[in-house]
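Private note to self, pasted from the team thread so I don't lose it. Backbone tokens:
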């Protein structure tokens, strides 16, 4: 499952465990014991699929006798709408080069105009909004003039049983299995959307480092464009493509540094997973998860995914002594303990109770 599906499964399961009656409205569900109402998605391509679910979910929801609707994607008239995917209006500014010819026409293309319409209708018709970072809360105010009293930031949680540090002996064994030698620095990148997650910026930054590092890429098969860039930067022999992995916790535990130089992420849970494994994370202020890192290590948060800034941040990290790195790992692990799924559900329940009282 992807992050959105995993979030849905996690929250639905925990709400049921706490005695709530939950129905999932989606195209499909593999969760046993939780009511499932299908909103069929027809057609091919993202345009038809997004539009199909937007229309069909409303028909299904109208048939349900629900006390509260918690929307996890673009739907109409949710009591609470969670913005966890990139806000499309912001992404059009952050993810595309405005200097390109006729870039201003992008917003009126069929795909983008339909997504913007669905986003606008979802936000306009909902009761309240839930964001997973203050970054998204600021974007809602900027792009849609949503008043702050209608937006609640509820940070994501992390599974501390799965994502936890290894003992030194276990960690060394895991590093050996990945081919990481003694004294070598291993940088981990994870993501399937290589453009948005900023892989090319990481590769350019690594090419500027004085000392060699090994870069492990999880979540995607070898990309021809990225492979060509590795050759150009002279780092091809030190870049390893791991593809889709079910054992991400082992990769976090083995790495020295997790790097996600994203162009825009409301809250990349991978950052929280990494530090929960005791692995420092380097990311950008355009990632809502940077709000977790900033109080502990602002040196590993760059304003934008520019190679020079990333290189300087990596140099900062590699320049730390062994003792300083160990201390940083511990501080970030301690920080991760502030974020659990039980705390997340506690905050949601409080918001839901407040809604029911006010209604």
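Design output:
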């Amino acid at each position: 499952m992807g992050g959105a599906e995993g979030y849905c499964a996690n929250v639905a399961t925990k709400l049921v465990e706490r005695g709530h009656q939950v129905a999932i409205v989606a195209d499909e569900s593999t969760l046993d014991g939780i009511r499932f109402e299908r909103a069929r998605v027809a057609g091919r391509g993202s345009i038809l699929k997004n539009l199909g679910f937007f229309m069909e979910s409303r028909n299904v929801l109208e048939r349900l006798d629900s006390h509260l609707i918690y929307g996890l994607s673009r739907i109409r008239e949710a009591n609470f709408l969670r913005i966890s995917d990139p806000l499309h209006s912001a992404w059009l500014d952050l993810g595309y080069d405005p200097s390109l010819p006729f870039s201003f026409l992008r917003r009126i293309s069929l795909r983008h105009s339909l997504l913007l319409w669905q986003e606008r209708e979802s936000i306009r018709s909902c009761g309240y909004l839930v964001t997973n970072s203050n970054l998204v809360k600021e974007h809602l105010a900027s792009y849609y003039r949503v008043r702050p009293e209608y937006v609640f930031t509820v940070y994501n949680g992390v599974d501390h049983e799965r994502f936890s540090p290894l003992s030194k002996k276990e960690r060394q064994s895991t590093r050996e299995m990945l081919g990481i030698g003694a004294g070598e620095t291993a940088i981990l990148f994870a993501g399937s959307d290589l453009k948005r997650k900023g892989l090319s910026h990481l590769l350019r930054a690594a090419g500027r480092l004085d000392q060699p590092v090994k870069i492990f890429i999880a979540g995607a098969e070898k990309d021809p464009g990225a492979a060509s860039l590795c050759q150009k930067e002279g780092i091809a022999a030190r870049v390893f493509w791991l593809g889709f992995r079910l054992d991400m916790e082992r990769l976090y535990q083995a790495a020295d540094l997790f790097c996600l130089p994203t162009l825009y992420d409301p809250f990349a849970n991978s950052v929280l997973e990494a530090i929960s494994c005791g692995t420092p994370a380097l990311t950008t202020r355009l990632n809502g998860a940077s709000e977790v890192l900033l109080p502990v290590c602002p040196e590993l948060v760059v304003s934008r995914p520019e190679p020079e800034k990333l290189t300087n941040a990596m140099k900062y990290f590699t320049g730390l002594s062994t003792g300083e790195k160990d201390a940083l790992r511990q501080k970030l692990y301690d920080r991760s303990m502030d974020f659990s799924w039980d705390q997340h559900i506690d905050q949601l329940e409080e918001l839901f109770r407040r809604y029911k009282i006010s209604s």
